[in-house]
Amino acid sequence: MYPRLPVKALPGDHDQAKRFFELIDGLANKRVAIIGDVIADEFIYGRIERVSREAPVLILN
Is residue 61 a contact partner of residue 47, using CB atoms and an 8 Å limit? Predict the structure, then answer.
């Protein structure tokens, strides 16, 4: 519906990415257990049509 805005890196993001990959490289030859799930958030823009009766959720048009 709306054009996506360009994403710009914040100051310090490059350092965080570098540190992240250093940590990942350090996991070689180690056993790792991951508990949890992935949450992928996405913003959706639209006009609010109403509020759902079943839950406090906005219904977009």
Answer: yes
